[in-house]
Amino acid sequence: MHARTTFDLPLGGRGEGEGGASATVRVGGVPISTLSLRQLINHMLNDGPRRRRAGMPPLLVFDCNGHALSLNATDAKYRADLAQADLVHADGQVIVAASRRYASAPIADRSSTTDMFIDSLPGAAAGQVRYYLLGGTEQVNADCAESITTSTPGLALAGRRNGFWSADEEDAVIAQINAAAPDILWVGTGKPREQAFCVRNRHRIKAGWIVTCGGLFNYITGDYPRAPQWMQRSGLEWLHRMATNPRHLAWRYLTTNPHALWLIWKHRRG
């Protein structure tokens, strides 16, 4: 079993255990960090370059939403991979709401991967923190890279690559990433593939942080429209996603959302 990394909290955040490890609460059977979105971003921008420069193993940062809760309960391989994360953050508003109702402490706020990425761009540019984008189709990946470098003056990417490769090509993918030596590697190939890739290759990848991000690049390019703010705040972003992309998402949400709610209830006492 991989030993979880201990790190200091930014901005005076709460810690527990020796070394000030990030405080977590269990939601639906999964330990979730209580860090706020801003704390998470600040820590990433400070710790990612430090770890990369020191040649330390990358920190694995995975997201959790209703889909993740359901997969954790039904897919043994995904559950084992998720357990290897150094930090799991609340990508879904349902996770935050459940923590406030049932957990020993509330999660500060929702840290969706899209917000985490977008809100971190000015700081990454200012601090010369270099990102690598891995995932999406070639067109989506290229358009995402162009969009963020155009909209954020001073932002320099370490590199990028689409999310389609065969098992025989994986060594070459790792070599491309290592040649770029990014501070933050964003992996957007979808659950459970992205978690399996990260765990399988964490000790071969030269990066500071490895962050899973699902369909992030499609949201940046506008291929997937984001929900209005009121839907995001009320935990209804999933409904907007399902309505705008029913062919790919309807069955997933209709099956995993009820299961996730049941898991939250089942594990409500820890």
Explain how this protein is built:
The protein is α/β, with parallel strands linked by helices and 270 residues long. It has one domain. 49% of the residues lie in helices and 14% in strands. It is built from twelve helices and ten strands. The protein has helices at residues 37-54, 66-74, 76-82, 93-102, 113-126, 138-151, 170-180, 193-201, 216-221, 229-233, 237-244, 246-266; strands spanning 15-16, 21-22, 24-27, 30-33, 59-64, 87-90, 131-135, 159-161, 184-188, 209-212. The chain has a six-stranded parallel β-sheet with strand order 6-5-10-9-7-8, sandwiched between helices. It is globular.
Which key features would you list for this structure?
12 helices, alpha/beta, 49% helix, six-stranded parallel β-sheet, disordered N terminus, globular, 270 residues, two-stranded antiparallel ribbon
